[in-house]
Design goal:
Helix content is 34%, strand content 31%. The protein has 335 residues and is of the alpha+beta class. A hairpin with a 5-residue loop joins strand 12 and strand 13 (229-232). Helix 2 packs across helix 4 (67-101).
């Protein structure tokens, strides 16, 4: 059974992601740039420039003008332009047809659950409770773009050159290159560029902090569309606080922050309210705080895997002296 609260959470996640997709839609300018790159990769641009340079050098070094030869020289770039235009529009039709066949897939992990998703390139994504992932049915460009709302752990495959694109000139396939393709992960406030990387991203809208934690590889992070870029090495964590705009970067035990995949819970000096929000998602409950004395409280604790809610609350009671709780069905009252 899906509760109205979860319906609202899912709708917010969907709205958040589709806003991102609208911003990232394929504009005419991007398509034109793609075709320019295609022509260059086919060697058409290079050949045109070479022919023109040969022609100019010929004019400079020739004292007597042979109009027949000049006409022949001019005919070559003209033919190449026609040749280029033909393949340009052929490729344009091909790409448009390919784009029209790509659909966006979405996966949602309901409250109290976790989901594992395998992307078209073999990369894996684990979704925490209440998380929505949107990705294309196939990756047709050099960058692999996915969109996530809430929390996920990414195991991004480093492309070995197997991702291919048709070469319109010869009918054979051409690899993007041995260095592989970049994966671009977009969420609210953060944009992450990765290649052969494992990392955790936590971006719940009701939390005070947005966190990106790198386990292996290298991660480039842009915050809230700002020009500055942050580079993370293994066990680096970037914390962004939207209310203040402050960005912090420090060393952590990265594996602890992804233990939720196996049923564990780790809070590293996390605001008390954020802890409650996490417990709501993991256990599918609702907290009602009847006092404000814990607003400035933070918790640093690592719960064992698959501990019951009662066990978690007992530990919190020890860590936060004076706190009392009452469980009534799916509602928990703190005082």
């Amino acid at each position: 059974m899906v509760f109205p609260v979860e319906d609202k959470a899912r709708e917010e996640a969907v709205s958040q992601i589709w806003d991102k997709l609208d911003d990232a839609s394929c504009s005419d300018e991007k398509i034109e740039k793609a075709f320019y790159n295609l022509e260059t990769s086919l060697g058409l641009k290079k050949e045109e420039q070479t022919v023109e340079l040969v022609h100019r050098e010929h004019i400079r070094n020739t004292k007597r003008i042979n109009w027949g030869r000049v006409a022949a020289i001019w005919a070559i770039p003209f033919i190449m332009v026609c040749f280029s235009a033909y393949y340009y529009y052929s490729a344009k039709d091909y790409v448009k047809e390919t784009l029209s066949e790509v659909t966006y897939m979405q996966r949602y992990a309901a409250m109290g659950t976790r989901e594992e998703v395998v992307l078209p390139d073999g990369s894996k994504v684990w979704l925490n409770a209440g998380t929505l992932l949107v990705y294309p049915s196939s990756f047709i460009s050099e960058s692999r773009n996915v969109y996530i709302a809430r929390e996920g752990f990414f195991e991004v495959s480093k492309d070995s050159g197997e991702m291919e694109t048709p070469n319109m000139l010869s009918g054979v396939v051409k690899s993007f290159g041995k260095d592989g393709c970049m994966c671009l992960v977009t969420t609210n406030y953060l944009e992450l560029e990765v290649l052969g990387t494992t990392f955790n991203i936590s971006a719940y809208p009701d939390n005070n902090q947005i966190m990106a934690t790198l386990e292996t590889g290298r991660l480039q992070v842009k915050v809230n569309k700002q020009p500055e870029k942050y580079f993370l090495e293994p066990n680096d964590q970037l914390i962004y606080t939207p209310s203040t705009g402050i960005v912090q970067q420090h060393k952590v035990n990265a594996v602890s922050h992804s233990d939720w995949r196996m049923g564990g819970l780790f809070f590293g000096n996390v605001p008390f309210n954020d802890v409650l929000h996490t417990l709501e998602r993991v256990y599918g409950v609702k907290f009602h705080v009847r006092t404000s004395i814990y607003q400035n409280q933070s918790l640093r604790v690592h719960f064992n895997r698959n501990e019951s809610l009662e066990q978690v609350l007992q530990i919190i009671k020890i860590l936060v002296p004076g706190i009392e709780y009452e469980i009534v069905g799916k509602d928990i009252y703190l005082r």
